[in-house]
Each structure stands twice: as structure tokens, then as C-alpha cells.
Design brief:
single chain, Nuclear Transport Factor 2, Chain: A, alpha+beta, six-stranded mixed sheet, 27% helix
Length: 143
């Protein structure tokens, strides 16, 4: 009999969800990018407003509009230093991500296993800012 390490299998499934999102971003596929969100999600994203919740956070229209504002072709997207922590049917991930070949930002995801599939229930993306009085986003940082 083969024994499967549940945490290893779940880790692989979660990493596959995150890799598929990166591929969807690269391919400009907004619907695929948001498909892994749970029905009830709270999302703190780079673009306003301060918070998206529920169906509004799953709406791919804003992402499609952003794609339209970018030069054609694939979107550069890199995920670096991904850490996945799993406890039962709850998981937590954090990474440094780069979009468009220039902007690095911090990403934190909370996931729940719902109906046997890992779904994102919480997302928080942010960029640091300089606390030197300028309050400018620190867009020049590199990991």
C-alpha cells in the first residue's frame, strides 16, 4: 500500500494553483486568474479601492482593463521566495512577486480547501513606501 503525505500533496496542489495564476497573468487571461477565488473572498490589492469583498473581488473586468492599458504580448510575471504553510484545510502563503518586468510587490494569500479544491479566501498585495516624508511608493526595490 502506498502512503501519501497529505501535507506534500496539498503543498503541490497549492503551488499548482499559484503557478496557474502566474500563467494566467502571463497569458492575459483574467477569467482564469480569478477562477481560484472562493465565493467569499477579501482582497487588498495594489489598485484602489482599499478592499474588495465577495463577488466584486472575483470580477475580472478590472484586470482586463489593466491588461488593455499595457503593451501587447505576454505580461511578465515572476513569483519568488514562495513559502507555503498548511494546517488541515487552511493554508497561508507569502512571496515576492514581480509584474511587468519592473514592479516588485509583496503578496500574501490565505486559502481554504473547499469541496476538495484549494481556493483563495484572502489576498493581500502591497508595495512598501518611503517613510522619509515623501510617502512615495518604493518602486525601485529588488529582492
Amino acid at each position: 500500500m502506498t502512503t501519501i503525505d497529505r501535507s506534500t500533496a496539498d503543498d503541490e496542489k497549492i503551488r499548482a494553483v499559484i503557478a496557474d495564476r502566474a500563467a494566467a497573468m502571463h497569458d492575459r487571461d483574467a477569467d482564469r486568474f480569478v477562477a481560484c477565488y472562493a465565493p467569499q473572498i477579501t482582497k487588498f490589492d495594489l489598485a484602489p479601492p482599499l478592499v474588495y469583498e465577495g463577488p466584486e473581488a472575483r470580477d475580472a473586468e478590472a484586470l482586463r482593463a489593466w491588461f488593455a492599458s499595457q503593451p501587447g504580448g505576454p505580461v511578465g510575471y515572476e513569483i519568488r521566495d514562495l513559502v507555503v504553510t498548511i494546517g488541515g484545510d487552511i493554508a497561508f502563503c507569502h512571496s515576492l512577486n514581480q509584474v511587468g518586468g519592473a514592479l516588485w510587490f509583496r503578496s500574501t494569500l490565505g486559502l481554504r480547501k473547499i469541496g476538495g479544491a484549494w481556493r483563495i479566501t484572502h489576498e493581500h498585495n502591497s508595495t512598501p513606501f518611503y517613510m522619509d516624508g515623501s510617502d512615495k511608493a518604493a518602486l525601485d526595490l529588488q529582492p
